[in-house]
Structure formats: structure tokens, C-alpha cells
């Protein structure tokens, strides 16, 4: 068993880490860190538990520590981070001096020597770790996963990008309130309403997606070269981001071929049969009215993205449209970091 | 006063007609028709009233008749129709033999001799009425308004189309449940959820919008020539459709010019100061997080569409994006038919 | 394995039956019946599946039959019924001529020779079956479970009633929309709203609860003798009924004793370790803000009721108050019938 | 015109004050105070406006001051306070040295020399002001209104209490999220859920109601002597508290008499025809499924409470039940303080 810890353990994504790591065959939680308000208390007492499933017994008695590397035992190997961005920017590098940090924070994602990875999409970017350690003189390292809405979108784009030349992507999102944290969206803001703005989200989708589909040239990432524009909106859904996607290729579209490419897509995590890897990263639904967040967010434990309404565009040549749903705090956050760690554990450690 | 009636008077849109016509300076409701289940009863007894404002006193005692032209008094001039499509296809032509029918139904919209009109966009299409009456030998006629999501979109496109060459439009909608009628969307389908499908809606948006922005060539409509593709979704909002719009022009975009073009847009209904005409058909909001359906759907009595997040596309040349909100059962349905009737009353009768 | 079937198999509660019976150690679904619209189709094709978990593979290919005993194979032993009341009144007696019918319908509940049973509360009422078979000359029989809101309430009252003299109970419910069936509550009726009326619900709670807590005198039920009055309301919750309960005893209240009585309550299903029996029928929560339907409805697979805010009444003598949450379509419907069948299977068959 | 100001002007209830005072015939807003974060800014810039109706033009340019009496012009007569309780306890007495404070805060409500008033219920309690000024040596004074759920309940109890001997009241509430302030209830807490706890609410209802229905003995309040117990719950409704009420009288119940007593109830504000007074303080609905918060909260501008499902208790003697809806931030907060001020303005100033 690899000993692991969670930074930001009391928050929304922190709780998902704990839920997903419970009964994990390779990872065992032995450390939990949070703000000074929680430090010194048993996790059970420090935390208002938000998830529908009850808090795992195994973490209840762990005493929460401050978010300080010197307070984490040396027998911990991997720290999962769901720290707020500003905090992560300062703290994660300190932890990386001796620990592996698998981070869901956006702070370090676009640093040149920090791999931004979705295991099914660009596992080869893990090679960058080598430079990171050399550059920074660290014994540990940081690996990051993308933004929640980016992960779901990129998983569906990957099998298309592998088989066709993409010209343009237009994406309009309908995102769940959990993406803003437990207190992020007041009920007064969202009941009988939606909010057409999520700070920084469009920029992240527009840059991270191309980065993830890029190639390693030496140890530098050359982003993919098509255009992708996003409009992001918050809707009255608890969990599960929905995205409406329009794609133009450089060539004729055979919708059945594309459907097969997406449905049959598998990658390294599936080959290695990693514990958190979904059987298929993307599930294709034929029903007219799917995917729906409440019905499809938990597909394959919340780790599979569901695509539906895959249809030829009746208006634009070489174009098609679809709708996707992905669980934003599982596949789009905690589960993403854990899958990164499982891949590292199997291929690097 | 012009005597008017409402067909489909007990339904969702029928109730909006009644609400909006109450205290109207030029129109007085003297006839109400509905299905045989309601016929013979006083409107108050025949109707489960759905709107937040109470049922107007003036209609409570009107006895509902069957939907049959022979049962409507000859002193009625205009009939507003919110009949279901299949029903409208059969019944509206019979009424048009002697009455003016201002219809919100989709049945007759794309008939060559039936004008599909938004008064601010293509009032000149009313000229088609002449052929309709000649062709069909009717004393009355049918005028239609577009689909709810089309009206809101087209009102925002019109000032752009008048000033620039549009290449492409991508639109993704987040539509209110009232658009499906009172019983249309079960709560089990939409609480903590959304549904990425509305039957026929995308097709209507894709065809009706270009038709409305087209020109009359003789008395035939030549649709506008750009491409417009839509993806339509139902969200947990009671009233007010939200649409996320991406536009590519044939030329450079100066976002302030476009903002001014939209904000300053006025047309014939504003010049004629029609009773139901909003001061500005489209209101432009500067706040990051607007428009929102609950906050903006009632702008100018629900007859103005609100645009926000108008921004240059950071990715595509000659491109920009925005979000709009319009009230689907006021501007997008009953109010649209009434504004058509007001225009006809002022310019034709 | 006992072969079982489901009547009303395509509906909301029918689907819960199928979900809960999947992987059941003793029962295997071999027959599914529904309306003539579904008959002759494979279950997968006949059904719009509503539950978040996917349809079990094992039922997908079962061909749905009409709801007619002659079409059900003789090797089926138990039929679970989620038929609409009027339908159940006619059809269930026909099935009971040769099958065991474990019914969630209200039609036969108050018949003198039909046991209305919650296994933890009044399993001894199963003795009534004997008369039923004699009276009616049936080889099979009907056993019923109470209304959803009654089951949850009665499970919490039982350990109190066993230990104290109850004088009065006032209960005000906040019930989930699933209780009305998938199409029962339109979203227009419940978003940003609640509906203070559920037809027949208050009467069922007021009569069924006392019946369940009654005693068998010979083979006749003498209902419990205290007063219970209910007010029932529908709220914007998908699953899980919440009830606010005020109780007056005939004696002094020691709130800790009552808490212990409730928390320690176990009964025959727990002793027999029936497959669907929760470890404790009622879970007591200490947190101020629990139980909550979304957090507590799935306690012990949805078969345990959760009580919280158990507090001495500061105003009335000998009085206390609490709030309960129970899953209305699991513990309150399909799970209730299944637990009845498990008890019968173990003790009678 | 009387010059008035609002303390806590940027909050939820502060905004309601501003909305309701706009176009008031007797009161004109000339001062707005809020926290130091807002002070010095124009109201328009200091405030995130939450209400569906747009911010009134008349207040946009008023510069917000700190909450300090020395910063409020002497030509202001009345200050409406929606300060948080702890803050109100410190600050309101300072303002009362020279201003009239009409407060919605709970801080001073139960002080012996501070009148807690609903104009339709106990306007005579305003006589207490005299002692307050004498006791405290103030030129101004404080008058308070009760808690939102108490006001609605007490308005319905008053006509009953005036005509019958009440023995017991049991009330279970379903309260709107706006009662907790804009950020009070996260969407994660209430979508597909409810929360069965509102801190301090039950205690307020249990004490304030009896106080309001009490009598002045000399200048001391003798509370009403019946028992009232409450259980309070938060539901997914934006505005409008719903309360389920069970009442036992000391005598036989004729439900039509009670209905008439409630429906015909009028009091001093109606006689004086005060600007904010509803025509009838309580409206009685006959429909089975009313009152509903979204349909009834705005009755008579949000100042009337709506009662429905008034029915004889089928179980308990001398007992009946009903459901009420009242607008929590209009009749239950800002409108309550304004009606108090209107009464004072007409009868005392």
C-alpha cells in the first residue's frame, strides 16, 4: 500500500478524494491537511460532510494537520491537492520538494515543466517530470489535471482528433453548482434561474484543451492547432457538467464512423486496467434525450463521460454536433488526480 | 375598441394572451374558445389558472365556446391562436375565412402565402396577406409569429445583420419549462437535471431565423444566406429562454460598434409607439453575470430581449459571442401575436 | 430461488421493484406485466427507465405480458404489485386465486381479511391470511403494505408506542415528487413552489397508522386508540418524504429514554436477518440540521428511516417533537412489499 | 413628505425597503447606511441588486454612509433598520436618541419598553413608546416588528383569538431561502433537498406570537395564555413562507364561522387606509391546492397573508387545520416595518 494524504481535505473536492480513496486497493489515506481552523481536530469533528454517502469510517479519527510539508510524515508518498488556486501556488511547490503532488488546482497547470495530464489523452507528458525535478531540484514533483469542464470535453475530442483534422470547436457549457464549492452558488442565485458566467472558465477551456491534445517536442508541449471557443454557464444541477459541442472537420463527416471512434476509444489506463479507469472513457448513448446530468453523471463510478445526440450538422459542411455529460467533481477533479496518481504509481514509482 | 377572441384560451399561452390583453387600450376580449371539455362553462370554471398574477375579472364570466368559427360572433375581428400545431393546421384556415387569425402555432408558418412576422424585423412581410386572401378566397387571413427561441435570437441578429455580413451563427439554448406547456416537463425530469433535447426546436430555429431575415422578392421570401446551427436544451427555469450565441462576420469586429448597433436598434413598432412594443427591442447589459432569466425575463413587460456578455471572440477572427434572455411566453409567444395584431390594426385595418 | 413477477412493471414503483430485486439472493424475476401498450415488447423496449442506476441486464429481454393471471406461468410464486388503485381493486383478487400478491396498492389495504403489514411493526397480522384464503377460496392471497408516508411515520412511532401511552400525534409532511409517479407533478407546479395538498394522503395516514399499531383480537384488528392528525404537502424534492412530528404522551418525557428506545428498536426482520431488512429500522441523528432527504433517504439502502431533531417540547407537558426522513419509493413502496414477501417466504412458505 | 433612511441598505431586506418605499406618497428616502465596505460609494455602485424588479432610479445616486447617527442628517425622521441582530443591539439605541427607528431586527423585540407591533394585531402597544422615551431619555424611539414567520401566523390567529378560546396551536413551517439572506442558503444545501432547522426561529415563533396577542396591563404586556409549539424547516422556495397550522379551541368548531371571521378581519390600518395596508390582512382561498408560495406570496403587493385548506380536524374535537402563505421579506420584514411607520406617522407624529 502507498500512503497518501489529502490537502484541502475538508472541502468539496477534498471529500471526493476521501470518498474515492476509501477501499482503494493501492492507496491508503494516512494524512489529512486543511486550514488552521480545522487543524488539530479529528477529521470527523473538523468537517461538515457534504456528500450523500456517509463519511468513511477509516478517516474519522485522523487528526487534521496544517498545510505544511514539515507536518506530514515521511512515509507518505503522494499528496492529493484540492487547495484553492492562490494557496496552491505557494504551498504545492513546498510539498513537491519531497512529496509527489497530484493536484487538481489550476495554479501550476500551465507551467512549462509541470505536466498537465489526462491519462487517456496525453500520458506521455509525464516525461516532463524529469525536467521539473532537474530544474527545481526537487525530490518530489507536481502533476496536474485540467479543469473539470476541460477534462470531459477533451476526453471526447481525443478519439476525434486522433482520426480527423479538426478545424473548429464551439462549446457552450451548462455546469453544476458543485463546481463552485459548497458555498459557491447561493440558492437565491440559481433557483428558477441560471448564471451565464464562470470566472476564468472559458479561458481555461480554450487553452488547456489544445495543450492536452498537443505533442511533446523534446520536452516542450506544442499545443494542437485548431480553434476552440467556449461560453460557460451555471445551471441548477448539483453534480455533472453538460456541454453542447459543435465541431467542424477539414473533411467529410461520416457520423457512424465518428460514433464508433468515440465508443471504441481506449487508452493506457484501460490497458493497464488501473483501478479508477472506466472501461470506456466515453460512453455513447443513442436515446434522443440523453445524456442528462442526473442520469449519466455516475456512469462507471463517475469516471466515464457520456456523449449523446451525436448528429451530422444539417447546416455546415464537414460538421457535427453532440452533447456530453461528465461528473465534475469525480472525473473532473478528484478522480482525475487519483487516476494520474495510479498511472504514476504503475509506470514511474 | 376592436373585439378579439382567444383560441386555446385555457392553456399556458392562452392565459398569457388573456393576461396581456387585460386593460389593452385597443383590444377587448369578447370570445374565448377551447376544447369541448371546457366549452359551455364560464372561463373561471373551465380553467386552472397557472400565472402568478390572478385571473383578470373581465374574462371570468365569459362562456367558453368550442373551437368552431360558426360559434364566434361576427363582431369579433381578431382571433389569437395558441392552438396545438396539429389542431391549428385544421382549424385556423376555417377561422381565416372570415376572421383575422394572429397565430402562435407553427402549423402555417412556412406556408408561402402566410406571413411569418416579427414587427421589428420584417413587418413588410405583411404584404403577403394580399396573395393569401386572393389564393384562398378568404375574407380574413392568418399571420404567424415564429417559435419562442427564434424570436429572441432574431431580434438580436437583426441589428447585426443590417450592418454586417454574417457568415456563421452557432447557438446553444437553455430553455424554460413553460415552453413545453404546463404539463410538458415533469418535475422528475428537471429537478437537479437538464434535458438536452426539444423535439423540432433546432429545425425551427435553423429555418425560421433565416426566413425572417430574408427579403421579399415580389411576394416571395428569399431567406438570408448565412449558416445557423442550433442545439437546444431544457433547464430548470420556469420562464425565460437563455441562448448562448457565437457569430462570425465577414469582416473585422469592433465590439463597441456592435454593442451600439444592438442597443440603439429601433423599428416600426417603436416609431408607431404600439402599445405592446418595448422601448428598445433589445437591452444590452454590461454586468459580467447578466442576462439571467429570473432577473431579465420581465424587461419592459417581458417584451424586450436582454443581451449580455457581448465580447470579442479571443480565438476566431471576425467573431464575437453573447448571451441573450427573452421571455418565452410573452415576447416569444402571446406578446408576439399581440404585437403583430397591433401592427395590423394600425397599418392595415 | 423463488420465481417472482412484477405487476405495473414499467412505472416508477415497478422500476424500483426491478432495481431492488436485481441480485436478490432468494427471488428471481421471471415475469413482468404492464398495460396492453407495453405487452408483447421486451422490457427494455417497453420502458422509459427513470432511475439513476441503469436498468438491470437481467430484465431487459423479458417480454412484458398483459396484466392477466392466465398469462403468468404457474412456476411464479409471488407477484409484486404497483398497480394503480382502481386497477388493483379489480385485478389483484384475480391473481390471488393462485398467486401470492405482495401489493403496494391501496385498494385492498383496509379489507378486513387482508393483512396490512410492516414487518417490524405488526408481522403477526399475517395470521389474517388464513381467513382470507378461507373466506375467498383462494389458493394464493394478498398482503399489503401501507402508504409511503405512513410506513416511515409508523416505524418511528412503534418503539414509542411499545413503551409509552401516546395521547396525540400531529404530523405535517413535506413529500417528494416521485410519490406522485413520474408524470405526477409538473415542474411548473413545484419549481420555486410547494403544493399543500395530496389527495387522500391525510386520510390514509390517519387511519392506516392506527390500524398498524393495533392488535389482533381473534383475527380482527383493533386499531390503536390515540389521536393522529396529518397535513400533507408536496415539495421540490425528488425522493424522500420528510415529516415533522409532534407527540403528546400520557406521562412525563425523558428525551434520552425515547432516543434510546427508537435507536435500539429491532424487530423480527432484524432477528431473521432478512435480506432487505435494515440493521436498524430507525436511525437517530444528533446533528441540528438532519435528517435531510438528499442526505438520508438512502440510509441502509433506502430501507432505514432517519430521525433527527428529537427534542422535548418546550411548551406542552409530556410532549416532544422530531423530524423524520424515509425513502418513499424504497422503504415506502417497493422495498416494503419486498420485505413483506421475504418475511412470508421465511415464515409461511 | 417625511424624510426616511434605511440602515443595512445593501442587504436583502434593505433592498425590499428601498423597493417598497419607491413612489411612497408620504416617505422619501434621503439617507442610506451600510457597512464601511459600502460607505462613501453611490448606492448603485455599492450594491449587488438582488430583486427581480430593477433598482429604483431615485436611490442610485445617494451616497451610502456608515451606520452612525452623527452621519445622518437631522431632517431625517424615520430610519428603517434591517441590521443584523448583534449589530442592531448596539447601534439602534444610538440612533433612537434622536431618530424614530422602525426595526426589523430581533435585538430589541422583547425589551419591556420596546413595542413589538403588527398594526392589525396590537397597535395599542405603541403606547409603550412613552415609557421607552422616559426610561431611556431618548428624543426618538424604537418600534419593532416580529419575525417573518410569526407575523404571517399571528395575522391569521388574531381573528380566531378575538372570537374563540384557543387551547393549543401546533405549527410546522416550510420557509423560503430569502429569509436567510442572499448568501444564507447554498444551492448545494437545498436543490433536491430541504433543511429541517432554522436557528432561533422556533423560539421566536413560540414567544413573539403570544406576546403580540397579549394585552397591555398598564404599560406592561401580558402575553396570551394558550400553548403554541413550532417546528421550522427551510425548503427550495425563493420567497414566501408556508405554514401548516393545527388549532384546538376550548369549544365546538363551526368551520364556516371561522372562515368568515378570518376573511372579514379588518383592523386599524384598513380603517385608516394606510398606504401599505392590504385591503384584507388575510385572504381565504377555497381551492384544494392553495395557498402556494409562488402563486400567493404577492397577494395585495405581498402585504396580505393567504389561508387555504381551512378544514375541521377529523380526529380531534374542537379542532381545525389550515395552511398559510405570507411573503417573508415584504409582509414579514420590510413591509411590516413600513406599515408600523405609517401608523406612527398618522397617529403619533
Automatic annotation (TrEMBL), chains A, B, C, D:
Pfam families reported in the protein's UniProt record: Semialdhyde_dh, Semialdhyde_dhC
Alphabetically ordered keywords of this record: Amino-acid biosynthesis, Diaminopimelate biosynthesis, Lysine biosynthesis, Methionine biosynthesis, NADP, Oxidoreductase, Threonine biosynthesis
GO biological process: 'de novo' L-methionine biosynthetic process; diaminopimelate biosynthetic process; lysine biosynthetic process via diaminopimelate; threonine biosynthetic process
Name of this protein: Aspartate-semialdehyde dehydrogenase
Family stated for the protein in its record: Belongs to the aspartate-semialdehyde dehydrogenase family.
Enzyme class: oxidoreductase
Pathway of action: Amino-acid biosynthesis; L-threonine biosynthesis; L-threonine from L-aspartate: step 2/5; Amino-acid biosynthesis; L-lysine biosynthesis via DAP pathway; (S)-tetrahydrodipicolinate from L-aspartate: step 2/4; Amino-acid biosynthesis; L-methionine biosynthesis via de novo pathway; L-homoserine from L-aspartate: step 2/3
InterPro entries found in the cross-reference section: ASADH-related (IPR051823), Asp_semi-ald_DH_pep-lack (IPR005676), Asp_semialdehyde_DH (IPR012080), NAD(P)-bd_dom_sf (IPR036291), Semialdehyde_DH_NAD-bd (IPR000534), Semialdhyde_DH_dimer_dom (IPR012280)
EC number assigned by the record: 1.2.1.11
Residue positions binding substrate: 175, 201, 234
Superkingdom of origin organism: Archaea
Ranges where the Semialdehyde dehydrogenase NAD-binding domain occurs: 3-129
Residues reported to bind NADP(+): 10-13, 37-38, 178-179, 328-329
Subunit structure as annotated in this protein's UniProt entry: Homodimer.
Gene Ontology MF, one: protein dimerization activity
Binding locations of phosphate: 109, 204
Active site residues per record: 148 (acyl-thioester intermediate), 241 (proton acceptor)
Catalytic activity: L-aspartate 4-semialdehyde + phosphate + NADP(+) = 4-phospho-L-aspartate + NADPH + H(+)
Primary role: Catalyzes the NADPH-dependent formation of L-aspartate-semialdehyde (L-ASA) by the reductive dephosphorylation of L-aspartyl-4-phosphate.
